[in-house]
Amino acid sequence: xxxxxxxxxxxxxxxMFVGFVRGRMSIEIISLLTIAVIAVGLxxxxxxxxxxVDGLELAFGGFGHPALITICALMVMGRGLVVTGAxxxxxxxxxxxxxxxxxLGLLVSLxxxxxxxxxxNNTPVLVLMIPIFVALxxxxxxxxxxxxxxxxxxxxxxxxxxxxxxxxxILVVSIAVDLGMPEMGVFHFTPIVLMASLVALPYLWLVMPxxxxxxSVADASERRRFHTRLRVAGDSSMIGxxxxxxxxxxxxxxxxxxxxxxxxQPQQRIHxxxxxxxxxxxxxxxxxxxxxxxVLDRIRRESSARSxxxxxxxxxxxxxxxxxxxxxxxxGIADLHGVAVLGIHRPERLIGERDQYSEGGDLRIxxxxxxxxxxxxxxxxxxxxxxxxxxxxGARELPRKSKALLSAVIMGVAVFTASVGxxxxxxxxxxxxxxxxxTGCVKFDRVGRALSGQVIVLVAxxxxxxxxxxxxxxxxxxxxxxxxxxxxxxxxxVVAAVMLFVTVLTNFASNAxxxxxxxxxxxxxxxxLGLPAExxxxxxxxxxxxxxxxxxxxxxxxxxxxxxxxQFKDYIRTGVPLVLIMVVSLSFLLAVxxxx
Length: 596
What we know:
Blueprint: H1 4-22, H2 27-44, H3 52-60, H4 66-83, H5 88-100, H6 102-119, H7 122-138, H8 148-160, H9 167-178, H10 190-211, H11 220-223, E1 226-232, H12 243-246, E2 255-256, E3 269-274, H13 276-286, E4 288-289, H14 293-306, E5 311-317, H15 328-331, H16 333-337, E6 340-345, E7 370-375, H17 377-386, E8 389-391, E9 396-397, H18 404-419, H19 425-438, H20 453-471, H21 474-486, H22 491-508, H23 511-529, H24 533-545, H25 555-564, H26 568-593
Antiparallel strand pairs: 1-3, 1-4, 2-3, 5-7, 5-8, 5-9, 6-7
């Protein structure tokens, strides 16, 4: 019979799981309640050989655990890549692929994640790809909630393919060597995983995205169309070309409102409209400007000299504003306030009225117009107060592109040192996050934007559950019960049962617990039944990595939870079928490969 503590540990684990699935309380509340129950229970009923305070350390130790420090540090570094624009080249490449075909773009992304994770720890790989796919979703590609879980699964499959793919693989192989099994090479079981992955790939690519919800939030500001004058620079790629030849290179959301006769000339001002994101892409592609170059240069110089972020804010013109009936050239906004108005939004029903335009063709500002304003934070606020403008929510900071290379180098060094084993991922990630702060790639007062409170308490709760499952003897008891029942099964079914047991354990406890408990059990079962140990050890190794069914199973599962807006049931809905596909495929391939 299991001990009292083992029974209690299993009851708490099941209760937490049921609470997550039902969804009546938030994940944060359930996680904190789980930690509290463990803390109070172990304080009044300590584990054998421990004191009351040891139980508190077990319950609250997750908040200082290396896994949580690693996740938070990776979130900070990911934020650094985003706010400096370091990932824009990669995002533009994948955007072109997605524009060709959404399914092709997703397939290419899944293969990239898979291949890189074979040789580099899958956590940094996913950290690099998350902000790219967030940016792609904002540019009109697939919603991020439909791509992150498939990407995570692909990276986990890649990590499964080599002995160095994940730290869990290394742990299982090390324990097996200690127990007397010959050491495995890096690609010892790669062919088996590649064949199983070919079976799973169509599910990841074609089925899983359709099972996931579209959690993208409709934002009215993203739908606003801003009218502006695109100034053609002397080195612009538009010069000498017809508009019809330029249109294929521009975002589909860009519209030209002038009847242009002949090729485009230097310093020409062209009336265009589009969303803010579309206008930014047009400026990048065509090397033009949306405001006078002298004011844009001044804003950038002051931003660099004073280490301030440049904001882009939307402001509504109120009835008391002095700007009403003025045009942008006659408003004196740049001279008075040092900010640049990039465009004007007006409801479509008002566009086109003759009295709304000056003789030069510039739109006259009216009450209710929304101005797209760029400037330093203090200048933007002074402009809003002085000219009776109402600042709307959703202000965003422009990427600090001067630090893009620096942030990319910091992330690259952190990933490299962790992947080749120079430092543990916790050390390299923490060092990288600190460097992001010290170099100004990420500002410390903005760190709250990078971290997810939901992920933090969920990680802490999952670590506490993993420890109590292990320390109470619940995992060992479950293994013993499994061993008694397997003696009546054929060898191939034994392999599948061991893999399934470890998979369940890793999805509710931790990879390390599953590895440390499952590997000795596999050796014991092999000895009892007279089977070769290696296929059963590989069943343990594979099972430890089939952590798709719950967010608490692996740190990357929790890493994507906030960005994708996922719920517990999303992991179950998509992860359980993938687990079954992989268990059946890998068990069959192991049985065939080892002649069982």
